[in-house]
Design brief:
The complex is a heterodimer. Chain A is an all-alpha fold. Chain A is built from 14 helices and no strands. Chain A is flat, with a radius of gyration of 27 Å. The mean pLDDT of chain A is 89. The radius of gyration of chain B is 24 Å and the shape is globular. In chain B, helix 2 (48-66) packs antiparallel against helix 13 (342-351), helix 9 (229-245) packs across helix 18 (407-416) and helix 9 packs across helix 19. Chain B has 2 domains: 37-149 and 316-384, Periplasmic binding protein-like II (D-Maltodextrin-Binding Protein, domain 2, 3-Layer(aba) Sandwich), CATH 3.40.190; 153-314 and 405-436, Periplasmic binding protein-like II (D-Maltodextrin-Binding Protein, domain 2, 3-Layer(aba) Sandwich). Helices cover 45% and strands 11% of the residues of chain B. The chains are: A mainly alpha, B alpha/beta.
Chain lengths: 309, 437
């Protein structure tokens, strides 16, 4: 056996700068930098900029001067702002309840074995996949004051004798945007809860069934408690997204009729972008922050409690 | 093959972060396509043939003559304001932006002085209509260059009005209400938007209020006196008028809904530009009346009726601004000068078939106005129109704020939704007081 000539690999001593990166703490920090930069640019900077804007009298193209909390005082005395706050709570509350109920029901159905299960699961995601603006335009047509296909159907089935003024009546306009939000949000709940359901061992339910537990009892005493942590997270995400919703209302009603369906985001947009009163728009946007922050804290605390139980 | 090591990745990442840091340090995004490209942002014209003409003929001719590249972009009319606001705030965007009504006043500090161009153009064409100056002069200088006026007239179905005993269009609100009542009973209501949309909503609600003797502000420019009997009466009248004679879906309409409703023959009349009639001319066999006639033969135009204080009009006004941030201000000005030259503006004006009335008196003599009698009322639209803020001579920042908040339109919309007339006027008074404070 020939003995191969071997070369001894003598690594060059690393330069001090790179040697620093051998330290796990520095490396961890460096690896976090891209995330920090992104968070800083796209979350922290706009947020801080929003705060700075809200305490000035800045208009579009005019930097403005410091005015303290004058903008907040102004918006709290603004009837349309109060309507927007009320609407936002109603919109978020009603849609979340329906999305949860329908999403859970759908998830339970999809958790069963049936032919075409995979296709059905993919299909129900459609409302969530289609760009919101696009699907909302389709809904706008369906609720159109003159050419509503829903009215046409109801009329031809003999259920109505005149047109329903879906988007022209304040209450019906609110109901319309709530329907669209629920339609769009249910798949998110369904798929997330389905993922949660699949982590629950079917043996638990089977054992309970052998012991004589009825379906409702099995759901209430086994499935629901085990699904609760996932449910809370899904609800948390949904509440945050719905509270700050913009697209559906902007496309469907533009906040109308006569400001009756404005939410925080759409009213902030109208004042800040439409009228050019950037500081007031920023104040309206920021006014939702403490409320949202409180909701998130309560929910997170609750999730923690559920998890350690 | 290059080996991917942890150190290589770290080095590349450091370089990337360094690059981003460079951009952030200079405070400027990388410059693309700077130079002789002029980016022109306009609305999607309600007369599509005009946009085609610009794209296929006028802009290539301008590029050839001026030696510049023109990037032509059209968006929905209601999206122009969001675009200019974000462009001004970010300091980058189109070089020329079309705006409606008195919207340029909102951006007066951020746009280029166009006085030289505005004055020379006005002088060369027998002067501007008052409404053009009111919308584009900030008290001292032209902040926008007047482009056109889209006259707001009521398009109505002549035969349907004849059927209910109104051979001529009603000349007072009372008569219009009576006729409208009969027509709605026949399933042919009046169509009118009271929604948040730039054109048909304010061009109805403002002159309607003025015709009853109301105004958002007094002549001193400080006193809000909208809460008075005349305005309350106008709101009460509107509430009943709406229920008795209007398509109640109008609360949710934008500027396109009434066109569709009229052309599908579900409404008898609507305040609009001439786009409905022009569309019926463009597709005569597509729009056929219930009697088998072409719809175009049954459309007439009339001004808004008189109220107790007289007859008023407000037309949708169009102008162009050049934002301060533009790197191509000279090119943008040259282009505006070129497009406003008679030889270049005329083909565009003709393609509009009277939908657009030019901003100067000289064009009243144009032969286009003699070609179709149905379009005749639009010839003098510029003479009759007032601007938001009337009776103020300049439609400045405050009237622009009132307009963009839709306060006057909402006053009527709230009442037709069920709010007491007194409360609706009181609400408007509160909102106006905050604006004019």
């Amino acid at each position: 056996m020939a003995i191969a000539e071997t070369q001894v690999y003598m690594p060059q001593a690393p330069r001090p700068r790179l040697r620093l990166l051998e330290d796990e703490r520095w490396l961890a920090f460096l690896l976090l930098v891209p995330t920090l930069v992104l968070l800083g640019m796209f979350i922290a900077y706009p947020f801080v900029r929003g705060i700075l804007l809200s305490v000035t009298n800045s208009r579009v193209g005019v930097p403005g001067e410091f005015v303290g909390l004058a903008n907040f005082y102004k918006i709290f005395n603004d009837g349309i702002f109060r309507t927007s706050v009320y609407n936002t709570f109603v919109y978020t509350g009603v849609t979340t309840v329906f999305k949860l109920a329908l999403g859970l029901w759908l998830a339970m159905l999809l958790n069963r074995n049936f032919r075409g299960k995979t296709f059905t699961r993919a299909f129900i995601l459609l409302p969530f996949i289609i760009p919101t603006v696009l699907s909302t335009f389709a809904w706008k047509w369906m609720f159109d004051p003159t050419f509503s296909v829903l009215n046409w159907l109801l009329y031809h089935f003999g259920l109505i004798t005149g047109r329903i003024n879906w988007l022209g009546d304040p209450d019906l306009a609110m109901i319309s945007i709530i329907i669209v939000n629920i339609w769009r949000g249910v798949p998110f709940f369904a798929i997330s809860l389905l993922a949660g359901l699949q982590t629950i061992s079917p043996e638990l339910s089977e054992a309970a069934a052998i012991d004589g537990a009825k379906p409702w009892q099995r759901f209430w005493h086994i499935t629901w408690p085990l699904l609760l942590p996932v449910t809370m997270v899904v609800v948390l995400f949904s509440v945050i997204q719905t509270f700050a919703d913009f697209q559906i209302v902007f496309v469907m009603t533009g906040g109308g009729p006569a400001n009756a369906t404005h939410l925080f985001a759409t009213y902030a947009y109208q004042i800040g972008i439409g009228t050019g009163l950037l500081s007031e728009g920023a104040a309206i946007s920021l006014a939702m922050f403490p409320i949202l922050f409180l909701v998130v804290i309560i929910q997170l605390l609750y999730i923690r409690r559920v998890e350690v139980r | 093959m290059t080996r991917v090591t942890r150190r290589n990745v770290l080095k590349s990442g450091t370089a990337l972060v360094g690059g981003m840091a460079g951009i952030l340090a200079t405070g400027r995004a990388p410059a693309f396509a700077q130079g002789t490209t002029v980016h022109w942002l306009r609305w999607n014209d309600f007369v599509p043939a005009s946009d085609q003409l610009l794209r296929k003929e006028l802009l290539p001719a301008a590029e050839k003559t001026l030696g510049i590249k023109i990037n032509f972009e059209t968006v929905n009319g209601n999206d122009l304001q969001p675009r200019i606001t974000s462009a001004i705030q970010s300091g980058a965007g189109p070089d020329i932006i079309m705006l409606f009504n008195n919207h340029p006043q909102i951006y007066s500090e951020s746009v280029v002085d166009l006085s030289e161009l505005g004055s020379s153009m006005g002088n060369a064409e027998d002067g501007y209509y008052d409404l053009c100056k009111s919308n584009t002069v900030d008290g001292q200088k032209f902040i926008a260059l007047p482009w056109t006026i889209v006259g707001a007239m009521i398009a109505y179905r002549k035969s349907w009005f004849d059927e209910v005993g109104s051979p001529t269009f009603p000349d007072t609100w009372e008569k219009y209400r009576e006729v409208g009542k009969k027509l709605k009973a026949m399933g042919r209501p009046i169509g009118q938007t009271l929604g948040h949309t730039f054109g048909d909503a304010p061009t109805f609600s403002y002159p309607y209020m003025w015709s009853w003797g109301g105004s958002e502000i007094e002549k001193d420019g400080k006193t809000v006196k909208i809460n008075k009997k005349e305005v309350v009466d106008s709101v009460k009248f509107m509430t009943a008028f709406w229920k008795e004679a209007h398509d109640e879906g109008g609360l949710a309409w934008d500027d396109t809904n009434n066109n569709r409703a009229f052309l599908s023959q579900t409404i008898c009349a609507t305040l609009n530009g001439a786009s409905i009639y022009i569309e019926s001319l463009r597709n005569p066999d597509k729009y056929i009346t219930e009697k088998g006639a072409q719809l175009k033969t049954d459309i007439q135009h009339a001004p808004l009726p008189k109220g107790p204080a007289g007859q008023f009009a407000m037309h949708t006004f169009f102008s162009h601004v050049i934002p301060n941030y533009s790197k191509n201000q000279a090119g943008a000005k040259e282009f505006l000068k070129w497009i406003h030259t008679k030889a270049n503006y005329e083909p565009w004006f003709v393609s509009q078939k009277g939908f657009a009335t030019p901003p100067t008196h000289a064009w009243e003599k144009h032969k286009l106005w003699d070609e179709d009698k149905v379009m005749a009322p639009f010839k003098v639209a510029g003479l009759l129109g007032q601007t938001p803020g009337y009776p103020l001579s300049s439609s400045g920042k405050k009237p622009a704020e009132v307009l963009t908040k839709y306060i006057i339109t909402d006053m009527y919309a709230k009442a037709v939704q069920g709010m007491a007339a007194e409360d609706a006027v009181k609400w408007a008074e509160g909102e106006l007081t905050k604006v004019y404070a």
